Amino acid sequence: MSAAPWVIVIDDEAGSRESMAIALERAGLGVRVFDDAEPALAFVERDSRVRLAVCDLRMPGMDGLAFLNRVRAQELDLAVILVTGFGTIESAVEAMRVGADDYLTKPVDLYELRNRVLKLVENWQLRDEVTNLREMLNERFGFDAIVGQSAAMEHLFQQMRQVAPSRASVLILGASGTGKELVAKALHQASPRRQERFLALNCGAIPNEILESELFGHEKGSFTGAVGRKIGKLELAARGTLFLDEISELVPELQVKLLRVLEERQVMRVGGSRMIDVDFRLLAATNRNLEDAVAKGSFREDLYYRLKVVTLTIPPLRERLDDLPLLANHFLREFAAREGKPEMQLSARALKSLSGHRWQGNVRELRNVLETVAVFHEGGRIEVGDLPAEIQAGAGTPAVSSIQSPFGEPRTMAEIERQAILETLGRTGGKRAQAARALGIGVRTLQRKLKDYRERGLLQEGEA
Length: 464
Description:
Elements: E1 6-10, H1 14-26, E2 30-34, H2 37-46, E3 50-56, H3 64-73, E4 79-84, H4 89-97, E5 102-105, H5 110-141, H6 151-163, E6 170-173, H7 180-189, E7 198-202, H8 208-216, H9 233-236, E8 241-245, H10 252-264, E9 266-267, E10 276-277, E11 281-286, H11 290-296, H12 301-307, E12 310-313, H13 324-339, E13 344-346, H14 348-356, H15 362-376, E14 380-382, H16 389-392, H17 413-427, H18 432-439, H19 443-455
Parallel strand pairs: 1-2, 1-3, 3-4, 4-5, 6-11, 6-12, 7-8, 8-11, 13-14
Antiparallel strand pairs: 9-10
Helix pairs in contact: 1-5, 13-15, 17-18, 18-19
């Protein structure tokens, strides 16, 4: 068969049948002709590549309406144009009532026939493109894109399935690198809003004066440099989903404005004079303890409760080490395919070494480590010696737990966070922007924490 879309023409009149077939073939379509609807139906049932039928309404044996009824009863994916020699309104109405996609009258205008068929073929191709795109999005951003079979992840998946179809705001909690945006995208893809936009904004990576405009938009001339109108993310997410990462970094003034939008479902652009209705679902994420921030007065309590209608907590990698082999193999397959290299597998000792690491950067750190390995490896088995030095340290002896001091005593979350930041800065040679990306936080957040450590005497000379 030709790669072109296939059409069948069914007509018991040879002249009419052949002339329609020639016109459609000249339009670049593959055509098969039949003088009887029974064998035509059998052909369609066998070959799913046939997507359109042009069928005479009046024929001996199975007529056009009977053919159409059989197609619809069997739920065949076939568009049908009925051709009537009578040209009566009654026959046209009956054809459309029982499910015809279009109709033509005899003598058939071949130019009109070609245009009608090509329009239906184009609609079919667009529909297939949308279906394929949706499948790609589900594969890339759906639940299947989140790798995990541990009990902790199965619990998270169960919660996500229950939450996704609702309109409720969701607060996603998790340490840096656990995949909060991936969870947000999966929730969007599994929601009734999946056909609309998913917009993400990192509140910790943008200066406050720019962040306000990014969120709420602005009118021309509202401030120096506002040379035109800008539509904010709250408007652009119309009927879709807005994901605000590092929500804890919002300054109090913007917290107040966001709370008002969530309560009134209206937004006013900076420098604007009218309220604009908005319809979006809000997903927010943070790696900080918002309850502590509320207690300290840095985050509004009323906004906190607006955000946490539903709370999802992503476990850190150290609490789901059962998933590490699955994650590692997933990443290695991805990188081997991307680099055009043979398949890569971890040796038992290399896997043990990975399992002994503390993974303070969580899944993001694991992915980065394996990407580095994949770039320099030629394929095949990956041994301990192929891993970075800091990972190899876990091959012989278990690493000290990230929640314990070297003496086995419990450590506070602040101590763990400080160590993660300083170790990451060490690996990046002190490059703050690079370290912030690896940690999954904004540069401003990193600078604020380093300033705090310095003021409290927690930074030694040369550490940052």
